[in-house]
Design brief:
It contains 2 helices and 10 strands; from the N terminus they run ββββββββββαα. The chain is an alpha+beta fold. The longest helix has 18 residues.
């Protein structure tokens, strides 16, 4: 790990500084697709979608669920402003599974009264939570 370049990663949610440390890579999903960021990345900003974020520090990988937000990438730092950020031990797996099942049923029903966008977002949030606990 001595040769690996690091950058400062800071993940902030409305209620806390969720994570702050030097890391070697972060993987996440944006509205444009999945991306991985290393030190020296070109500057950019993007919209995040609900998914599992993978935080790499050498050979150690931590997972967390992120529920929408924004990312700012600079060559030596990355800041994520997340609507919600959860570590695996903060996730109620049974509740996430129930939410997944409910959302899948709503989408499969083809009921005209179902708000499809809301059901799809609920499904993505539940899958992000479940992906973080794998």
């Amino acid at each position: 790990m001595a040769d690996e370049k690091t950058f400062k990663l800071k993940i902030i949610s409305p209620d806390r500084v969720f994570f702050e440390d030097d890391v070697t890579m972060v993987e996440l999903a944006t509205s444009e697709g999945e991306m991985g960021v290393y030190a020296g990345h070109i500057p950019l900003t993007s919209v995040l979608v609900p998914d599992t974020v993978k935080i790499h520090k050498g050979d150690d990988v931590k997972k967390a669920a992120i529920h929408s937000g924004f990312i700012e990438v600079m060559p030596d730092s990355v800041t994520i402003l997340a609507e919600i950020a959860e570590w695996p031990d903060e996730i109620d797996v049974n509740r996430a599974n129930e939410a997944r099942i409910r959302a899948e049923r709503r989408l499969a029903s083809h009921d005209s009264n179902v708000n499809v966008m809301r059901a799809e977002l609920a499904l993505k949030r539940s899958l992000a939570r479940l992906g973080a606990v794998d």
